[in-house]
Amino acid sequence: MKAKEIRDLIDFIAQSPLDEVHIETDEFKISVKRYSGSAKIELPTNSASVVVPAATATTPNVKPTPQTEVQPNTESKSTSLGNYLTIKSPMIGTFYRAPKPDAPNFVNVGDEIKPGQVVCIIEAMKLFNEIESEVAGRIVKVLVENASPVEYDQPLFLVEPL
Fold first, then answer.
1. Domain residues of the chain, as ranges?
2. Which residues, other chains included, contact 107 with Cβ-Cβ below 8 Å and sequence gap of 6+?
3. CA distance 101 to 17
């Protein structure tokens, strides 16, 4: 598979509703996951050409990973800031605190949240993704300005557990 074909495949997946695609032939194996931030391309050991660098150089949202993949919990992790937890961005996109510009924010500092409660929206490729909390607690700080770009795994909120 040529680098252009891989780019075309990734572009196609990015514009489709698919979150994950696996393709396997005699020459290679490729796995693409939309929001995990990883792609894996395996070539046979006797292959003379490697297309991974060309594919990753032109597609910044997809990175090669080792064959053993560990999927981290991307939304909530303990931090070194005492006993606070963080709610992190599961994707790259634009952060919004409210569903519409004139609507109230999903959460504010001091609000108590519970698992499954929507705390913000991240727009990625014209899709608005509701981000739900995986922890219960009280919002201590909003770490991102409204309508600003966010990176994968970027902290969004500090939460004091209840």
1. 3-58, 76-161
2. 97, 113, 117, 119, 120, 139, 157
3. 26
Q: Mean pLDDT in the chain?
A: 75
Q: Which CATH architecture has domain 76-161?
A: Beta Barrel (2.40)
Task: Write out the DSSP string of 57-105.
Answer: HH-TT--B--SS------SEEE-SSTT-EEEE-SSSEEEESSSSTTSPP
Mean pLDDT, to the nearest integer, of 121-139? 94
Work out whether the CA dihedral 69, 74, 76, 82 comes out positive or negative. positive
pTM: 0.51
**Tokens of residue 8, six digits:** 């075309």
Rounded CA-CA distance 14/11 in Å is 5
The pLDDT, as a whole number, for residue 72 is: 40
